[in-house]
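Title: Comparing notes on inverse folding

I've been comparing how different people in this forum approach sequence design from structure. To keep things fair, I'm posting one structure and asking everyone to reply with a full sequence. Here's the target:
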């Protein structure tokens, strides 16, 4: 089985990434693993860090490619760039701070008949609380381990294995997999909205198996978040409001008023408020206009 795994780093070295470290301890029997590492900035990786990880991953039998573009590009654009181009049975996305269980790839190999495979997600701070996947409509209702219908759940991007069949279905119906109007927060919410609103994919089966610890932004209070993080969350909430089919709110006047309410509720400063207004007018995240070079090649590989 061929699995392509994409990990996006930001402000992290390879050696500091919980995801990349735990990946080296996983079981890879019957798995041809192609690891794609995208350094999204703000600085380039150090050569020693690169060489050390390429050697370790090669010893593990993992084909590794490292790409570096330190402009902090939209995650949706990065995901789509690799989900469209390469051959695989499953495409897996990981953030840099997920602890991968040793049996993660065994779980995919043993359940390859499913369109989507995801672990039960436990926050790093509250490890005893299973938080995702959850019910699509009522997020406080947690989906138990076992089989589910795709249109009934939502989960986070990190640790989600997407079958080539599901990718092809979404592209054939909607012409994309990840909505590039979204950049960082809620790219996963939008992905599952797309599945929910596409009967051909919503009726497919998935399975929740295994578990994963993940650093969750939702564990932080509003006061603990930086101005930048609060603005990014505001962008995401606004875009979801505008593009969810079951509750379309495309009128600019209403959305501008909602942006003003968000300024007060989310404690945004005036500059952030102006940026949110621009998002309302353009109907996309500010970084959605930045593109990836069509023929971009890895800066480093171990093959």
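Reply #1:
Here's my take.
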């Amino acid at each position: 089985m061929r699995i392509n795994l994409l990990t996006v780093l930001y402000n992290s070295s390879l050696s500091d990434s919980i995801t990349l470290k735990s990946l080296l301890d996983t079981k890879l029997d019957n798995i041809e693993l192609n690891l794609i590492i995208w350094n999204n900035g703000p600085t380039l990786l150090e050569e020693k860090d690169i060489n050390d990880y390429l050697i370790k991953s090669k010893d593990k039998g993992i084909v590794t490619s490292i790409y570096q573009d330190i402009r902090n590009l939209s995650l949706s654009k990065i995901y789509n760039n690799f989900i469209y181009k390469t051959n695989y049975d499953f495409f897996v996305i990981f953030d840099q701070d997920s602890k991968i269980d040793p049996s993660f790839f065994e779980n995919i190999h043993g359940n390859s008949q499913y369109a989507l495979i995801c672990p039960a997600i436990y926050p790093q701070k509250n490890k005893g609380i299973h938080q995702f996947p959850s019910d699509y409509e009522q997020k406080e209702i947690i989906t138990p381990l076992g089989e589910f219908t795709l249109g009934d759940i939502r989960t986070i991007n990190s640790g989600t294995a997407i079958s080539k069949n599901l990718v092809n279905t979404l592209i054939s119906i909607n012409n994309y997999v990840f909505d590039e109007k979204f950049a960082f927060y809620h790219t996963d919410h939008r992905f599952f909205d797309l599945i929910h609103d596409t009967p051909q994919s919503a009726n497919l089966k998935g399975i929740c198996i295994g578990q994963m610890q993940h650093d969750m932004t939702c564990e932080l209070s509003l006061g603990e978040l930086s101005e930048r993080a609060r603005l990014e969350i505001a962008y995401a909430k606004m875009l979801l409001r505008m593009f969810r089919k079951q509750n379309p709110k495309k009128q600019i006047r209403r959305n501008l008023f909602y942006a003003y309410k968000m300024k007060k509720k989310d404690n945004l400063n005036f500059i952030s408020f102006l940026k949110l207004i621009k998002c309302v007018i353009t109907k996309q995240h500010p970084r959605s206009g930045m593109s990836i070079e069509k023929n971009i090649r890895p800066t480093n590989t171990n093959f």
